[in-house]
Amino acid sequence: MHPDRERLRLHRRLTQAALTWAELDRDPGALYRGVRLTEARETFTEPGPDQGGLSRLERDFLTASVESYERGRRAAARSARRLRVLTAALAALLCLAAAAGTAAWRQSGVNARQRDEAEARRVAALAGTLHASQPRTAMRLALAAWRTADLPETRQALRTAAAQSEQDVFTQPEEGGRALNAPAWLGTDGRVLTAVAHDRAVQWDVRTHRQIHSVARPGLSEGLIDVSGDGRLIAQRAPGSTGTVIRGLADASTRRLATGRWRDAEGAFGPSGHTFLVRRRAHDAGSDRAVLELWDVDRQRLRLRYEHGEDDGPLPLPSPDERHLAWCGHDGTRLRVLDLAVGRLLATHPPRATERLLCEGEELAFTPDGRAVAAATAEGVVTWDFRAGRERPRLPLAGGANAVVFHGAYALTWSPGSLSLWRTDLPAPADDGPRAPLLTYPAAGSEIGGLRLDPAADVLRYREGGRTSVVHTLSLHGLLGPAWRENPADRAAFDPRGRPATAHEPPVVDRQNTIAVDPTGRTALTYEGTLVDIATGRRGTGGVEGEDILRTAAFSPDARHLAADDAQGRLTLWDARTWRRIAVLRPAGSTVQEPALAFSADGSLLAASAVDGSVQVWETARPWLTAATVRAGDGPVRAFGFTADKGELHMATPHLPDRVSPLAPARAAAEVCARANGGATEAQWHRYLPSVPYRTTCGGT
Fold it and tell me: In this structure, are residues 194 and 469 in contact, taking their beta carbons and an 8 Å threshold?
């Protein structure tokens, strides 16, 4: 009875729903759905024409409900399929987008790296063109190029910058407007530049480029006479040209010398700055007599008056100890030396040819001992020792000399196109040949003056004239320092760790000289380029072919490379395993001096000396690139030594037993930062590397 009652209840509900559906004109919204449809299908799906006792309306209602449900189910299935397809498509698109983004990001990184490398190469090449005109900028740009991209080209540029001779160029700022050819003086050590323009004397610290003093005085430009060598004092004609006023530039002190009227007169400070020399024409009829007066600046009184001077030629030159005056008289053809202690001329008696050369020079110069006078002449530097009555060894210069200054045992000369540093106390060359300078620098200017040596800083400075003064600073690479060795060394050597060692000659094998031994110590290379077994004398396979007679050679410690120099100065790099020529490093060189050769411990670097005292360093992996250039001091280089980590190159020259130059990029960068007083500024970076984001190159600068 209970199941029939539940069926009847569902039947009545179905009947009522079917009637409602019919009243609503069979609206699909009135059909069964969900639980009701499920119950009706389970109860009234009996087979037979009356479908479980249902009326026609009820059967139609139930059939329509089932069909509506099936249509909905099929539509949902289709929607689900479409959703799955769409989801898969979106996932695929997302993967493609991610892959494309990753590829674009990687390509962007590649493009940025390629851009940086191209810019780094360009700036490294640019730095090489700025060494002479803008040395600090050149050093900073070489460092910036390496910081931008660590490449063989940028490493070579950085090594060159860390050892370049050119230290600085200071261009005098124009104070108070343009003043063409305003007079300027460079201090005794070259550290202070004094310029006078628009009645104002301005002093600059050449090392820091900072102004240190500025003094304005009415009539200073018109009445200017001289500035003392130490830059402390400036001399000008007194108002009305009736005396001399000496002003202190630092302490504003004033001293007055009663030198009389400045008509037909000229004057200059003595070397110490404590004396002042005046030469005044005597105005004797038919005479070129001049009166010489030496004034004590500190006591403001006359120290000496000499009535028999001569008014032709440059102003007489005081000796360093201010005990003598020297000039050329008798129409500039006779050497005069005045002893200031007794007020009489000394009997110098130089040979006529020597005297003629001395007096043809632009100006005379005393040697530091005050016993000799010298002049830059067409035959070089000629020096006459008036105390000993003999000529000192000449300093020969092709094309002659334009100027010379002395400092202790050193002489600095300027000849057309170059500056040369000499050591005057060296013995004569053993082969009786001409003396040679310790080193020579190019100097292309035509108005060079103010040659100065600064031993404390181991540099030389000179002033180049023009619209404004330009002061150049050049490193002397230890030649003025304590490492100087009086007795020159003929031979030198370094051990594998870069420490000085005893030099050994290559062995003689079967009565045949050899020039290099391989790292195993079993095979040697002969002058003909052949390999021989040291123990047996047998000829080995391979060797150097196609070259002239070899003069010197070196194997790399890893036995992979050989560097060989022939009689024509041609330097080549060879693969020591296949004996194939890798590169011609130097097509020609000195035919007199043999170069020193050495490889780093891993064979990645090769150093070779040049006849001018410089050293070239190649990376053997890319020997076709321009070599880094390192200055060794005096030449020729006797030997090289690399530290075990190839961080430093040690060089031995005749007078410098162990000069060091940094080769590891990090060490070279530190050296550049110290020498250039910091890295590239933001302004310099944006000017020379506009497409590369700015980055600091020297710590915080």
Answer: no
625 Cβ contact partners less than 8 Å away, ≥ 6 residues apart? 152, 153, 156, 618, 619
Q: How far apart are CA 383 and CA 366, in angstroms?
A: 9
Give domain limits for the chain: 2-88, 488-657
* Contact by Cβ (8 Å): 302, 293: yes
d(C-alpha 303, C-alpha 582), whole Å = 74
Mean pLDDT of all residues in 213-229: 91
Closest CA to 679 of 112, 117, 161, 119: 161
Q: Is 541 in a helix, a strand, or coil?
A: strand
Residue 138's nearest CA partner among 113, 165, 119, 161 is 161
Please list, in sequence order, all residues whose beta carbon lies within 8 angstroms of the beta carbon of residue 5, skipping any fewer than 6 positions away.
none
pLDDT band at 295 (very low <50, low <70, confident <90, very high): very high
Q: Is 460 left (phi over 0), alpha (psi -120 to 50) or beta?
A: beta
> Per-residue confidence at 431, pLDDT binned at 50, 70, 90?
confident
Q: Which of 323, 397, 401, 399 is nearest to 360 (CA)?
A: 401
Amino acid sitting at position 69:
Y
**pLDDT of 60 over the 90 cut:** no
Backbone φ, ψ for residue 221 (5° rounding)? -65, -40
User: For residue 611, is it left (φ>0), alpha (ψ between -120 and 50) or beta?
Assistant: alpha
Contact in structure between 325 and 292 (CB atoms under 8 Å): yes
Distance, CA of 587 to chain centre: 26
User: How far is the first Cα of the chain from the last one, in angstroms, to the nearest whole number?
Assistant: 102
Beta strands in 633-688 (DSSP E): 639-642, 648-652, 659-662
Helix (H) or strand (E) segment spanning residue 296: strand 289-296
Give Cα 150 to chain centroid, integer Å.
Answer: 16
What are the residues facing 662 on neighbouring strands?
648
In terms of DSSP bridges, do strands 403-407 and 390-395 run parallel, antiparallel, or are they unpaired?
A: unpaired
Length of the chain: 701
Q: What angle do CA 458, 464, 468 make, to 5 degrees?
A: 125
Q: In the CATH scheme, what is the code of domain 488-657?
A: 2.130.10.10
For the whole model, what pTM was predicted? 0.81
Sheet holding 301-310, edge to edge: 265-269, 275-281, 289-296, 301-310
Alpha carbon of residue 225 to chain centroid: 39
The answer to whether the CB of 121 falls within 8 A of the CB of 128 is no
